[in-house]
Design goal:
Helix content: 25-40%
Number of domains: 1
CATH class: Alpha Beta
CATH topology: Rossmann fold
Strand content: 15-25%
Strand order of the largest sheet: 3-2-1-4-5-7-6
Shape: globular
Radius of gyration: 17 Å
Number of helices: 9
Number of strands: 7
CATH architecture: 3-Layer(aba) Sandwich
Largest sheet: 7 strands, mixed
CATH superfamily: Vaccinia Virus protein VP39
Length: about 200
């Protein structure tokens, strides 16, 4: 199984993102890893991809995958990119590792017409049960770290993200859950493990 198939097998949120991206658009992927997802988009949807990554090893992998990549720390913003220079900006399960999630969302909406972001829901019932019954920070497939070595510094719930969008004049266009069950649709903050949002500036 190649890297692209592995990426999609292990990341339900990326499979959802794949369906949200039209053919031929210009895509910026923040925290793109080895570029496997962008390579798939390029091959299947003829997108014009650019990745942003801070890991030197991942940057080398991107280059080997034929994906243009820029070495950039997302905590410093997106100063390298002019306003509205991309059709779509992606951020997959990385928001919680950024120092100021509110600032990076504003930057993404500045450089892109549409933003697609997936978040880990710390309010997921399995995480709640671990905290309630074990008295320890949760460890799950989406949060496979100990509390002392995790890169996740701003874990949030789905409700937290929605409140951030509302308070920042960000419009949620679409909201999808990786576990697409009736319970997740009815009570996403409790039963959705991961959520994918399509957002835009709310220009009222």
């Amino acid at each position: 199984m190649n890297n692209i198939q592995n990426t999609l097998k292990n990341r339900k949120d990326l499979r959802l993102m794949l369906d949200l991206i039209p053919d031929g658009v210009k895509v910026l992927d923040l925290g793109c890893g080895d570029g496997s997802f962008l390579k798939m988009l390029k091959n299947t949807k003829n997108v014009k991809p650019i990745g942003v990554e801070n890991s030197q090893n991942a940057i080398i992998d991107c280059i080997q995958n034929g994906i243009p990549v820029i070495n950039c720390d997302l905590n410093n913003g997106l100063k390298e990119f002019p306003d509205k220079s991309f059709d779509i900006v992606l951020l997959g399960r990385t928001l919680q590792a950024i120092h100021r999630p509110d600032d990076i969302l504003k930057e993404m909406l500045r450089v892109g017409d549409t933003v697609v972001v997936s978040i880990i829901n710390i309010g997921y019932y399995k995480s709640r049960f671990q905290l309630l019954f074990n008295g320890k920070m949760p460890e799950t497939k989406t949060i496979p770290y100990k509390w002392y070595n995790t890169p996740n510094i701003h874990l949030s719930t789905i409700n937290d993200f929605k409140f951030l969008c509302k308070s920042s004049n960000i419009k949620i266009i679409k909201e999808i859950y990786t576990n697409n069950s009736i319970t997740a649709k009815l009570l996403p903050n409790l039963f959705a493990e991961t959520a994918v949002f399509v957002i835009k500036n709310d220009n009222k």
